[in-house]
Amino acid sequence: MRPDARHFLLLQLARQLRSGLRRPGDILNPLIFFLMVVTLFPLGLGPDPQRLAELAPGIFWVVALLSSLTVSGRLFASDFEDGSLEQLMLAPTPFVLSAMTEVIAHWLMSGVTLTLVSPVFAVMLNMPTQAIPTLMFSLLLGTLCLSLVGAIGAGLTVGLRRGGMLLALLIIPLTVPILVFGTSAVTEAARGYDGSAWLALMAAFALVGLLLAPLAIAAGLKISIDG
Amino acid sequence: MWSIVHKMGSPPWFYRFASTLAKWLLPIAVAALTVGAVWGLLYAPVDFRQGNSYRIIFIHVPAAVVSLAGYYVMAFAGLVSLVWKIKMADTAMRAVAPVGAALTFIALVTGAIWGKPTWGTWWVWDARITSMLILLFLYLGVIALFEAYDNKAAAAKACAVLSLVGTVNIPIIYKSVDWWYSLHQPASIKFTGESAIDASMLYPLLLNIGAFYCLFVLVVVLNMRAELLQTHRQSAWLEKELT
Questions:
Q1: Cβ–Cβ below 8 Å for B149 and A174
Q2: Largest CB tally within 10 Å, which of A33, B19, B72, B145?
């Protein structure tokens, strides 16, 4: 990468992080959403701690998926509306790299924060404490994958009215492997076994995603901007 | 050899090609389906464990096979339209999507109908059934994305990108659901009929698969021709064709 391109991307990353920190609601609201939906499950299924412990990995990951859908919808929206996305496309730095930087910034603000507060939610769902490190690893990798896949959908739907629901319809089938790998890793760890095989699969998915998703994201954004 | 690909990209040539193809393929498809249906439903032997209820396999399996192949056809058409900017490939991709979705739906419904007498339940979260359901979601997503865009040229490009992303994902989804299923294997469901299939049942099955492929090509080509009729309704070449 040319040094000025690297500099440009770092500036872009810093700008995204700074504007995200200036609107703390953008970071906190999804976490509060997560907390509220996690609360709904015991209310719906009953407070029996044994059953909650059994269902905790699945509940956790389904809620993580849903909250990632809600934030992915807003990923490119504000930049699309004020025209800065178009400027980014016209800039000399490759658009594929700019798109990837946007997704990394988004992941740092949404996925990593979720990972950091996840032990709290795990305790609320009566997940065995031995599973928590695996849970955190799986969330770190999994939210990266979810951000990447969500950004693909966001790129395709950013210019559409009521794109949010369509985004969910497009993205949910593609996130099934992440859900499977995440819940399997945490379930294995909760039973006392080693969930690292599933984590390795998730890491592979993340690496392939980092390589290929920015191409699809950039293509989708170009279609939305031109269309 | 490549000239035929270029010719297919031209609407007047494709219109004539589609009309000729349909004229020949319609009787072939009807014949193949009829022979396949009669052979499978009436003449194939009764199954040892399932009795006569297994005969729905002659609709279920071909529908499933062609629906999966159809997704790859759709994605390939999308790739051609994105890379070489051939508009006909757009038309092909859009024509395949509803046909593929319908076939996936038929596969799921016939599977459920087969499951009731065999396993005692309409639905089971088995690896293959779940993967088929997700394939249906992928098809519906492509159709929904096309409908959502006002600018139809951009819509076609977006659908092409989405189909390609889905293509990369389909093997991953299938494998992950497979591993998910083996991790959460339920207590006791017996899957009869999964063992090696006898020749007397295999041949009608293969014939039906071939018949469904013919039907698929026929329907897709007719859909494309209908779309050409609508898009080019005011052009001179079409007026000449129709008179």
A1: no
A2: B145
Give CA B139 to chain center in angstroms: 10
The minimal CB distance from B138 to the residues A160, A173, A181 is found for: A173
Cβ of residue B143 closer than 8 Å to a chain A Cβ: no
- For chain A, the domains span 3-226
Cβ distance of B145 and A170 shorter than 8 Å: yes
Q: Amino acid letter at B189?
A: I
Complex confidence, ipTM: 0.88
Please say whether the beta carbons of B208 and B59 come within 8 A.
yes
Reported as a single tens digit per residue, the pLDDT across A174-205 is 999 999 999 999 999 999 898 899 999 999 99
Instruction: Return d(Cα A85, Cα A77) in angstroms, integer.
Output: 9
How far is A163 from A75, CA to CA, in rounded Å? 12
Cβ-nearest to A176 among B151, B177, B183: B177
CA distance A135 to A64: 12
State whether residue B37 sits within 8 Å of chain A by CB: no
pLDDT by residue, tens only, chain B of 243 residues: 678 878 888 899 999 999 999 999 999 999 999 999 998 888 888 877 777 888 888 999 999 999 999 999 999 999 999 998 888 999 999 999 999 999 999 999 999 998 888 888 888 888 888 889 999 999 999 999 999 998 888 999 999 999 999 998 888 888 888 888 877 766 544 454 455 677 788 888 999 999 999 999 999 999 999 999 998 888 888 888 888
Give the residue on A whose Cα is nearest the Cα of B171: A177
Average pLDDT, chain A: 92
Could you name the CATH architecture of B19-189+196-242? Up-down Bundle (1.20)
Would you call B141 and A169 a contact, using CB atoms and an 8 Å cutoff? yes
Which residues 130-159 of A are in CB contact (within 8 Å) with B?
A: 152, 156-157
Interface contact A170-B162, CB threshold 8 A: yes
